[in-house]
Structures are given as C-alpha cells and as structure tokens.
Amino acid sequence: MAAAAAAAGGVPSQQCFLLSVTGQVESARLAGADQLYCRYQLHGGPDWDIVTGLEEGISQVSRPSQDARQLLVWNLPVEVSYKATNPYGWPQLIVSCYGPDLFGNDVIRGYGVSHLPTAAGAHRVTLPLFVPESTSQLQKLVSWFTGRRPELADASSLATGDGRDVMRVRSQGYVTCSFQVVTKDLQRLGYDNGRRAPAGAAGGDLQPAGGGDGRPG
Amino acid sequence: MKSVSWNHRAAVTQKSIDESESMLDQIRSRRGRRREAGSQDESQSRSVQHDDTSEPDETLTFRPSDSVRADVTDDVTDAAGGGEGGPSSPAGRLGKPDRGGGGDSPRAPPPLAPRRLSAAGQETFRSQLKKRLSLAEIKGHGRAARRSRAQPRTSRFDTLREGGTSRAYEDYMRATAAGRTGPSSVQAYDFFCRIWEDPPSERRAATAPATPREAGEETSGAAESLSLSELLGGEQLGPVTRHVAPMILSRKAQLAREADIYFAPSPIPIPPEERLPAGGQARDPAEDGIYVPRRPHLAGRNLHKLENRLLHSSDRSWFGEDGQLLCLPDPLLSRPRHRDYRDVSEDALTDYLPASMEAPRPADPEPTVSAADQPQQLQLHVHLVAVRLTEHPLFSKEHRAAAGLEQLHREYTAMVDDDTVNRLTQRLWAVRRARDGVLSAALQLPSADHGDHTADRGDHTGDHGDHTGDRGDHTGDRGDHTGDRADHGDHTGDGAEQVQRRRIDDYTTSIQRLREQRDAAAAQQRRLCRSILRRWRELKVLREDQGFSSTPLRLAVRELPSDHGQETELWQRELRAELEELRTEHDRSKQHQDAEYRQQLSEWRDRRRQLGSDSDQLGPRPQPPAEFDPQQVLADIEARATGNRRPPGEPKLAFDLLDTHPITATADCPKPEQQRRQAVSRCQLSVRTLIGGREVSHTRPQPLSQQLVSELHQQLAVRLRAAPEALQLEVCEEGTRRSTRTLAKLRLPAPASHVTERTALPEWTAFSAAGSGPAARGRLQAALYWGVDEETGSVLAPPADPTAEGAAAAELAAPDPNDPADASLTANMPDPCAAAEGGDRPAPLRPGCDGFLTGAPDPADSARCRLLRLRDAGVPEFRHVTMAPLRDQQVPQQLFTAYQKRLEAQSAAGAGAEEAGGDGGESARRSVLQYQLRIKEMVARRLRAAQKHKRLEDMVREDEVPDIGTIGSVFGSLLSVRRPLNPPRKQKQSRPLVDLQGQELQLLCHVVRAFNVPVRRDTDAVRTDYSRPAPAAQATVAQSSLLPKVSVRPFMELTFQRQTVRSNVAQGPNPTWNQDLKLPVTLPPQGVADLHSLDDVIHLSLQDEVLVDLLDDDRLQDTNVHQRIERRWLAELTVPFSTLYINGRVEGTFRLNTPPLLIGYECDVTARGTLFHLTESLPTGQTGTYVTVFITLEPPVNVPPTVQEHLESMETEKLLSHCELWTRAFRRDYPGRRVRCTVLDVTGRSALVCRYIRPLRPPDALLAACSNEEDQALLIARFVSLIPNVSDVNFFSGMYDLWTTCQEFLDMQAGDEEEHAILLCNFFLYLGKRAYLVLGSGIPEGLTAYVLTDEATNRWLWNPCTGQRSSAAESYSSLLSVGCLINAENVWANTQVYAQPSCISFDVNLVGDWRPLFTARQPAPTEMASVQAETLRYSVTDTARVRTDAERLERRLRDHLQNWRQRTNWTPWNRPCSDALRRMLPLLERSTFTPAISGAQLADEQTRLLANIHATYKVCGVPLNVPQHSQEAMVEALFALGVHRNDSREAEFALAVHMEPYPSNIVAVWVCVAALTRRR
C-alpha cells in the first residue's frame, strides 16, 4: 500500500491533465413536486483527484415557478477541478432530488446521473430522473402511506454499473444543468476529445455546444 | 266536451283584479279550512285519482275532492301572490317531502296585500310565475313517472293539472292585463272548477304560441295580446311548458317498440362467410406469403360486438378479404425504447476511436488522418426469405411427384417466358430475309451464277428484303454477322461476286444452324409439355390410389386462342421455306456428290474391268446421288415438324400450376401419412450465416410447413471492416431435442457494390446436402445488398473493383463445398453447439486482426497497461492504486516487485510443497502460507462472479411490508404491559455496511461479572492492600475465615487492535462490574466493505490490580502514601472479530482461558459456595474462572448472507432436491437449529456432508505415544486443537461456508470449527469409537461443530478447537444447542423439544427424537464415495528446526518486550528463572492431554522448580499457550498480557518459549513470561 500511496502522491503536474468544471444545477421539471431540493455529488474513478472544489452540495428548497413551465429553479453552483491521469472513470454528476410528499415526509423524488462533459466549452445537459420502484404493489401502498419510499442505499452506486440489473426504476422528470468545461493538457498527453484548442489558448473554445453525453474512453 | 274559445276567455277576463283577489282570498280561506281539518291525506287523494280514472269520460260533472281543488288553487294563489314573501308551500297537499319545509304543519296563508302590481312587481311576478310553472312541470313529470306503471291512461286530474292549469294562468293573466278586473264569482268558480277540455290542436297551440298560425291569431285578438305583451315588458310569455301525458305501454309493447329502435350487438362471433362479400371466399394473405402485421389485441367479446354492429349496418367494406376486420397494425412496439438524444447535439457525441499505443506527439498536435487510414465502413444486409425443400426424407411419394411436376413446370415456364422457340423462329426468318435480300441484290448484278436461282418468293422484294435482313441481323443474330455486314457495302469491288457467294453461304449455314436450334428447342418444349401432362396424370393417379392428397398442387391447362387459317399459312410457309432451303442445300451438295459419284463410278468400272463382272470382290455399283424428290422431302419435313412443333390444328396449351387442390385433413389420412405429417410439423429449419468463417447470425428456427417450405423472413445487418468474398449459409434442421443438424451449406457471393435494398431482389439459390447425411435438396431465397448511410446517402459498400469482382464472381459462381479451396472456410467454422444467438443487430466483426493494431507495441509490455489490467482484475497489490501514472516510466517498479515476489514465492511453494519437510520449520510454515494463499486465490476466483451479484437489498433501501405477524405484534404491543417484569432485549435494526460510511464503528463490551477468580497465594513480604494491617497481623487475619478476605482486586481489560480500555477494580474473587467498555474499530484500508477481512482478535483479559507499597520507611506509613500499581494477568477470553461480525453479538457466561498454572495465584475452590450464591450454578467440581459479558458492535452491521450459489454438485439432482426439501422442512419446524446436508468444497462443488466422514488414521507418532485408549483420544484431540483456527470469513474473504477435506486442512494448517471437528471425528472413528459430527451453536463462536463420542461409560462432547471434552449430560456446556448429528451414513436432525445437549437424548434410533435424512423410503445413495483421501499424508516435523524456531521466537518476543518498555529503558532478564520456566513448560504441555497430571501436581512441580527463585523473588508469571498461527499473533498475545507494563524499577523479567513438535508440522507453542520482584 505504501507503494500505492507513493504512486498517488508523486504524480508530477506534467503528468496529469486537468478538468475544471463550473456550472449550475439549474432547474428541474418534475410534475407533481411542490417543493424540491437537490443534492449533487461527483463521482470520479480511481485515477481522478479533486484539486479544488466541493464534491458534494445541497441546494435550497425550491417551489415551482408560477407559469406554465412549472420550473423548480435552484441554480446550485457546481465548481470543481480535477486532475487525472486516466480518462477511465471520467467524473459523473449524480443529482438526487428530495421533497416532501403529501403527508410532509421528505421523500426521494428522483435520481439523475450524467458524465461531466468531455469537451471543453459550454454545455447544457438534461438529466432524466428516476426513482426506484417498490418491489410490489402492496409495498408501494405501504411506502406511500408511511412516507418511506424505496431509495438507493448509496446514490454513488449509480456511477458504477453494479447492481443496476436488480432494480427497477420509474422515470420522473428532468434536471437541467449547465457546465462550462475547461480542460488542460489533454491534447498534450495525446488524448483527443474532439475539440481543438485554438493556437496558444490553454483552455477550450467557449462556443456553445450541446449536451455532453460523451463517452469517456 | 266543451271547448273554451279564446274569445270566451277574453270575456271572462274583463274583470277587475280586485275581484280576482277577493276570489283568491276565498279560495285561500277554504284551503286553510281544509288544512285545519286535516281531512285530506295522500291516500285519499290517490283514491280520488283512481276513481277518476275509472270514469274517464265523465267531463261535465265535477265531483271535485277538496284536494284537487286545493291543488289547483294553490298554484294559482301562489302565483298571484308571488310578489309577496316566499311562496306558500303546497307541500301539504300530497304530503310530498320534496316540497320544502313547513308544508306539513298547518300555517296561515301569507298575507296578500290587495294591490296592483307595480312595475317591479310585474318583474317579480314574471319570475315567480316562471318558477311556479317549471315547478308544476317538474311535478307533472314526476308524478307521471310514478304512475306510469300503475296507470296506463291519463287521468282527468292530470288533464286538469297539466292542461288546465296553464291555461288558467293565461286566462287569468289576460284578465289581469286587459281589464285589471277580477272575474265574477261564477266565472271564478267556473274558472277553477270546470273541466277544460281542449282538442289536442288547441292545447298544442296554447302551449306553443310561437307558430305562425298562432301569430295570426294573436293579431286577430290584438287587444289582449298587446296588453299581455305590455304586461310582460314586450316579451312573449313564451312556450312556458308543455305537458305531455306519459305514454304508458305494457312491458311487452315497450320491448317491442324498443326493439325497433335499439340494437344490441351480440358478443357471439359471426361466421366468416357472413363477413365476406357475397360469394367471396376467405383468402388469407399470410398464406399467400404477404406480410401480415400483428393486429392490436382486442378482447374477442368486444371485437365480435363491433363486427356485429358494423355488419348490422350492412357495411362489408369494413372487412378485408380474409373476413377479418380491417385495421392498422399494432402501433405498440414490443421493445421499450430508451431515451432519445434530442437534447444532445450531433457534435457533442464522441466518436469512438480505437485506442492506439502511439506515443503522444507534443510537437504536432494535429494528427492528420487520411482517408485511406479510415477503416472501411461496410454494412452488409442479408435478407433470408424462405427455404423450400425439394428433396428430403420427409417427402412422400406424392411430394416427390409434385416436386417433379413443379420442376418441369418451372423449366417450361422459363422456356415460355424466354420465348426460345419464337425467338429462334424470328431469327430464322430474319436471316432468311437477309439472304433473300442479298440474293435479289445479286440478281440485279449481271451474274451467271444467279441465273439458276429464281426468286420464286414474290412476297419479298429486293430492297425490302435487304432492309429487313439488316434489322433481322440486329435483333436476332447479335453480331454473328458483323463481318458480313462490314463488307456489305463493298460488293462493288472486284471480288464482289466472291463476297456475295460467301455471304450467301454464310447465310445458308446459319439458317441451317438456326433451324436445327429452333427444332431442338421446339422439340424440347413439346417434350416438356408432354411430360408435364404425363406427370400430372401420374400425380392424379397417385392421389386416387393412395386415397388422400397431401400437396395442393393442381395443374390448370388452358387452351390459348389461335387463328387456324393464319397458323396454317405460317406452317405452310415454313414448310415451303424449308423445302426450298433443302433443295438449295441439296443442289449445292449435289455437285460434290456428283463428282464423287463419278469418281467412284470410274473406280468401280476400273475394278470391274480388272476383276470381271462376276467377282465377289467387286462390290455394288455405286448409286448415283439421289435426285431431289420434292414430295419425299416435303413429307419428311412435315413429319419432323409435326414431331417437333405444334401442327396448326392442335390446340395451343398453357399450363398454370395452382395451389388449390384440397389437401386431405390429417385425420382422414392413413396412419403412415399422419406420422409423416407430424414429423414434418415437428421439423424446424434455421439458417446460419457465416462471414469469413465466423458465425454472425443464426435465425430463429422456423417451422416447416406441410409443403416443406420454411418462411424465414429474417434480416440481418453486419458491419464489416473489409468486404467478404462470399457469404456462407448453412441450412440447419432443428431437431426435437435442441440438436441442430446441418442440412446443407451454400455460398452466396457478396453483392456488387451498387446493389442496395432498392435494387436487390431475392433470388433462389439451389442447395443440396453435403456429406453423409440423408439426401436433401432445396432452394433458398435470399437477397444480399449493401446498407445505405442514412445521413450521407452513400452506399456502405466496398469500392467497386471490376477485375477483382469479376474474378471473385467467376470463382464463387459455382461454389463447391467439397472444393479444397474452401477448406479454410470450413476449418474456421465454429462449433455448432456453441452457436451464439444472433439477432437483428449489426454484429461488429473485424476479420483479420483480432487484437490491437498491428505494428504497435504489445500493450502487455507496457507497465501502465499491466498496472491497469491488474487493478481491474482486483489483484490485492493493485486494488487500491489511485492515480495510475500516465507514462510507463513513472510507474513505480516496486509495485511490481512486490507482486512478482509473491508470484514467485507461490510458484516456488507450489513446486516445493511436495519435497518440503526436509527444510522444516519456518520454511515449511511459509510453504503452508503459500498453499493457503493459493487456495484463497482459487476460491476467490471461483466465487468472484457470485460475489459481484448484488441484490436489491444492497441497492435499494425499502421498508419491509408488514405482514400479519408484524401487525399483530403492533396491536399486541398496545395491550402489553408497559414495564414487564421480565423485559426482553430489543433487537437493534442492523444496517447495511454502506450506510456506515463516515461513521465510527465501535466495539461495545459490557462486562457484568466474573466468578471464581484466582486469588493471590503469595502475599507475604509485600503489602498488597493498604487496608490491611501490618504484616505482623496478617497471619492471624488471613486465617480467620470470618472476615472477607480481599485476596484479589480484579478488573477486566479489553484489548483490540492494540487499543486498551479497562474497567473499574472490583474486590474479591467474585467481582461485579456492570460496566460498558468501548473501543473504536479501526477499519481496514479498503473501508467498511472489507470488514470481514479483519482478522484481529478481541482480547478480554482478567487482571489483578496490585498495589505495591513503595514507602521504605515504616515510620512514614501513618502519614504518607506512596504506592505503585501493578497488574497481574489472570485469565483471558479471546474472541476473533469474525465471530462477532458473523453473529452480531457475543453474550453469555464464558469460561475464561486460564493457564494450567498461574504462578503466584491459586484457584480458591473453597471460597466458592461459602460466600457467594452466584457460583452455585457452576457445575460441581468444575474449576475455572467464568465471566459474563456481552460484546457487540455499535452501530450494528448487516452481515451479508452466506453465498448460496447453486454451483455444480457431485450429487444427483434428485438427492439435492431431497436434501433441500428436508432442510427446508426442518428449518420451518425448528428455526434456529443448525442443519446442513450439502456443503461446498474449495472447488465450489457441493457435496453431501456424509462424504466428509471417513475413518482416517492419525499420525503414528500419536498412536505410539500412549497405549491407553483414552489417553490416545485426548492426545489426538490435543493434536487437532493445535491446528490454528481461522474463520472461513477471514480465510476466503467472503461469506462462504466452505468445507475443506482433512488433507487440505492439514496442508493449509488453518480451518474453522467444522474442519477441526471433521478431522477429530475421523480420527475417533479410526480408533473404533462411535463418533458423530455435531452441528449446533455454542459460545463464543456462534455456529460451531463438536464431536460426540458414544462410549460405554459416557457420552462425551469434544470441543475440537480446545481439545477439551465434557460429558454430554453436563448442564454447563459451551455447546448451547444441538442441530444435527452427522456420520458417514446419515444425518439426523434434532426434533426434540430442547436443544441443549444436557436435555436431549442422543439415541439416533429414536424416531421421535431424531429425524434422519435418509430413511427406508428415501435410501442413501448406494455408493457414497468419500471426498477424503484414504490415508492422510503427514509431513515429518523437523524437531531441530522447531528448536531453533523456538529460540528465534524467544529472541523476538524479548526484543518486543524491551521495545514496549521504552519508558523505563531498562529490562533486566533473570536467566535462572527463565531456565526454570523453560524446564516447566514441557510438563504443562503434557498436562493438557494427561488427566493424571492434576493441578496440584503441577503446583508442586512448579514449587519445586522455582523454589530457589521464590526464596529471593516474588514471582508472578503466566504461561501462555497458543496454537501456532503466526508469530505476529504471538506478539499480540504477549502484548495483551501486559507484563511489560510493570513500572517497578526493580522488576526483572523472565521469558521462556517452548515448542512441542507434533506431526505434520503442527507445533504447540508455550510462552511463559514472569515478572520478578525482589523480596525485601
């Protein structure tokens, strides 16, 4: 383990690339939710290390907007910088939304997960939300009454594929996030994420781009 | 009937309103009287009504009951007086409850002010009136409805109510409006009491005044209407209401009428013929091969209703040809679609590029990718349509005949379609015309030669012939005569004649050739015709003969219309032309023949001249060439033509092969045919597609129809990197038992580059069975084409290479499966059994290169790649590597060196395991360790897949559904006592491990009390208690048993992971603490999830706190206190953490692990029972110290359940299911009792437990050591207990209950209770004891295994891990419950009421007490091969090596002790004491298995050995005996003793290590450590 620690600590800055993401968990569209707050957490692979920023955050309680859109706006800032030696395990953003149900119990309203955009630039990502389903109708009824609906034991397990086969989920709504992504040294280290930095610029070109459902290698 | 005209009414209304009001007053008062009298009730009024109905025609006589009158007046009154207050309630009239409040109670009518209606009043009046009227309407309807059943006809009352009332209003209104005068009293009476009978038209007019006629009337009586309209503010009163008498009909009539109107569609299906248009026949498009999409599901009942409804409206257009309702295909997709990528723009989608190992190019960040480098994107689509068999073992005779007929018909059709005969005829004529043209052209030239040829064909003029001849050349000959045409023009030259002649010759030969061809083709066609007819006749005969038909084939012969005259003319022309040609040919050949004849004749004459006329050798005279005989030739030609071609009179036939012959139903067929059809219906065909020898798809098996056609209709798309040469298809026959037999193989060449879906046509390809299988022949219909990129529209095909393609096509056009050139294709064929299920998705395929890009360095060489791979594989050294360096150079090599070393050691251990032993000692131990590692790795590998399976509970947190029991307990808790006298412990809800992230896990130990603690023996010289008097007085006090002797001050100390916490000090040998001790648990580096791998041991030691007086000066004792606290180790309890982890808690009263000899202390047996009643529960004669503790984890953790994977087993399925059922039944009946039938071995196979039991010979050394059988047993038990006890959880790092065999157990030198017990049991069986393996639960280890020996004297329960035995009847045993007994033959589950060993009988033959696994009904398998080896291999222990090991260990422990005593930096070692201790240790070892050596003897021996030392020192020491697990464990145990904490400056130490060697490298390790204090 000592060797592993040495390996982890002794990565010189030339030998890793940086990914800096600033953004917001902007809003949610979730039918039937009167009040909602969300929690985000970032989950990176073993070769990813947070340089600055918070790995987790929790938002205020939001109410739907008084118009047809019924948006639940949080604008919860997400700011994190990673350094990494391997695109494997590209960080993922996991959003969990909670809100009171009919009886005032705080219940889970939706989980959503998405990779952070791989390409530099501004991105808007829409995360579909889902909640685990009860195992039976009776269970559903009981959980509705008691306000203890099934929820994930560990939301970060969404970032891994484990156990996804055993749970059944139901779609809920969408969460919209916006990210501004800056990468450094990806090209220098031979990784091609589809974007060419303009000559002399370290960061990415900040032209608007679509959502970043990229596929890290 | 009297009708009242409007005029009359107008007259009536010429009254003042005052009058009317007065009249109203009268009426009201009358009504009031009636109400007061209360004489009217509902029943009466009803009776009146009934009376009325009996006299419907009574009109003029009015016998009004008061009620009727009151009813009428009521309304009028209310209406009139509506301006005032609320409407007076008429509810009392009929007692109707719906009329609102107050109706029943008699009340005064509201005061009606006699006044004129003001304008405002008019408004109110109007509204009131409307309200009233609508009310009346409602009333009328309601009543009518009520009475509709009882009363078929309208009563007068109703007439009055409904017709009269409204008119009365109007009249009244008019009166009020016109004259504002009320009617006279007579009129008023008349108004109310008369029966108004109007003709229906009148009534309608009254109620509907808006009709034009009415309007006219209105104008005629302008005065009244005008005033009325004035009154209503210019607004017509309007059609206030219309009361229609309910039409009461009898139920039957009603139903009859309803039947006219209503239509109730029946849910009964309609016969299909009704659904079809008249005379139509149902046609199933699916049978015709037309794709029929799936219809949406509709319940049959509803569908039939709908069909009935549609048919009822006589609309057949809703039904299709098949008689089914027309509908769109089911719009629902059978497969759920996931998310769409609307939100994701195109450029954001990352393109997958294969990883390349090229070094990054920092200088040039713009790698240019040329088009050539781009991998080809090819997409080949294969559309398999159908397979039609033409020969197969399942074919019947009829099928064969039908197939023959079909074949003939196909050929015939091809010929007809091709129009061969006609074409050749046309061509023939064209050439003839061309020749004629040339001839006629030649005629124009002055040529002598052409003079012979008279152009007798008047129908061909020269120029015309030339023209048509050219055209004929073009159409027919296709360049056969290009050479001719080329020199067509230069006939003017010198050789023109020559050319002409040559051309005519050419034409003649080609005419001859064409004629022959035409004749052959015509003959062929005619032959085909004949054979088709013959075959058809045969088929018909066959069908008749066999009495049934199984093919639907029917030949329809049509006679095509033909013009007889024209045909004859053509025929004749043809004959003439041919004759002419033959004549020409004959003429031409005649010249040759004449010359020949002449020559032959001259020769013959010469011969005759020489030989004479009568000579035999002369031979016949040569005949002159035959003259052309037109008659004869014509006859020949005609005969030939009739044979070959259709003569003019013969009907022209066309054949149509139809599928309309009725097939005999299977039931009507004879048995063999039925069997054949069944066999056909069972048969299924599938097609396997191989590209480049790799299987890319295997279609679903499609059933074979009775016509032996299998409709496949499957498409697949294959994405390719390189264009394949050909596609290999295999037609497979799916048998009944999932066996697939390849019928035939065929190859389809890859399509040309331009072939896409639009241009590709399914083509039939014939195949025939290859190899030794039964003959099968058939045709496969398939289409191959290239895919089209949807976006760019480009064809995803290889670039067209004309030469290669042509060559390939030429090569592949005739594929031969037996061709050795195809051997490479067939060699790469995958095993048909391992055929993967191919779907419709494009299967990625990379022909050629399988790994990384060629030319790149092998990634396995890259250190980083290796690191990542090892990490991914979960190799322990790499599992926790983070931030794996990016470049090879930065990968730390020490990572690999450690791993490499381990691998080498393992391989070395594996190699050296056999010849080990000579090395002995530590190296043997190391090899054992390696062996353990290997086994661990193997198990981990085997069960990794199982471990990865997550359950729903791991992922999702969900409340349990409350069942009846929970609900019951909830209600029960309401009724239960609030503070019960015997409160039970509430179970804490444990949580899954993931929940514990970030929380501190604590070890919680509640020590209650201990008893029978050893007391100090050697109390002289040192004052151990300041409360005691001076030493001088000590002797007397000590002897006095009356005073409580404070002989020991014990406390408990909990040590875990080098952390220590201790309890308070209690007094005396039976202390009580009641204290919680808590220690944090340091989690393993991997986190909580690896908690099971924590192999630390919880040490709970009982120690004595000794106060040592340090005051040197006795005089100061009264004033000063100067003492030192010393601690002395007395006993300990060790609980492996895994035990706590598995069981959740450890609680109970445990016997502490006391050394056989405690120097300086003694167990005061006499103290027991005299002072404390607590000890009474102890078994008599039982020595030892006991402690009551409760240990648990805080917060409680959820233990993952034991992996119950259904892996392969060596047992039969039947036996396994029996075991399963038996176990389940027992667990249901007796929850909590442990029973096992099958267990997993290290290879992951499950086996019956009985297979583990087998007599095994113990090591000879042990048998030889003692002669006494009992001693032998004890020694063997000692031997077994010396094998280190390691839990499966620790060992196999997972919740597996694996049972190793005895050999593996000995080799690994590690195992849990079961392995110990099995080994012990097997040894005992060898000794001839009746031994059983006992599974149950005990303390402290939870689920455990013991050995029961049934001996003559007693039944003993042996604890295999301690080697100690106790009588089964003893009430105080560490075995708490017995679940089952196991021996080599059977398993018996305990079905007795109690499970405690002391309470149960161990006679397994008692059916009521023990439930056997195998009974007479379910016997044990006959041959039950044991998993154990016949004899165990015992490696020889090297005693010399053991001795050196002991020395080494002693040195090491000494070093450790010195290190721990850093504070005092001086650790003097007392050598003589160490020697004495060393001498004592073998005796201690012997005492463990020799009951003859009692504690007293030991004490004596110790006194003898330590006599000298005792004289000078006060010795306090502990002998420690541990099975040799590892030296680290030994160090830990020593640390837990706490001897090093002696702070005394004068303290000296003694340490001795003794290792007693046992066979098979088993060593008993004794460590004795003592602290010495010099006596003063």
Automatic annotation (TrEMBL), chain A:
<keyword id="KW-0970">Cilium biogenesis/degradation</keyword>
<dbReference type="GO" id="GO:0036038">
    <property type="term" value="C:MKS complex"/>
</dbReference>
<protein>
    <recommendedName>
        <fullName>B9 domain-containing protein 1</fullName>
    </recommendedName>
</protein>
<keyword id="KW-0966">Cell projection</keyword>
<feature type="compositionally biased region" description="Low complexity">
    <location>
        <begin position="196"/>
        <end position="208"/>
    </location>
</feature>
<feature type="region of interest" description="Disordered">
    <location>
        <begin position="195"/>
        <end position="217"/>
    </location>
</feature>
<dbReference type="Pfam" id="PF07162">
    <property type="entry name" value="B9-C2"/>
</dbReference>
<keyword id="KW-0963">Cytoplasm</keyword>
<dbReference type="InterPro" id="IPR010796">
    <property type="entry name" value="C2_B9-type_dom"/>
</dbReference>
<keyword id="KW-0206">Cytoskeleton</keyword>
<dbReference type="GO" id="GO:0060271">
    <property type="term" value="P:cilium assembly"/>
</dbReference>
<comment type="similarity">
    <text>Belongs to the B9D family.</text>
</comment>
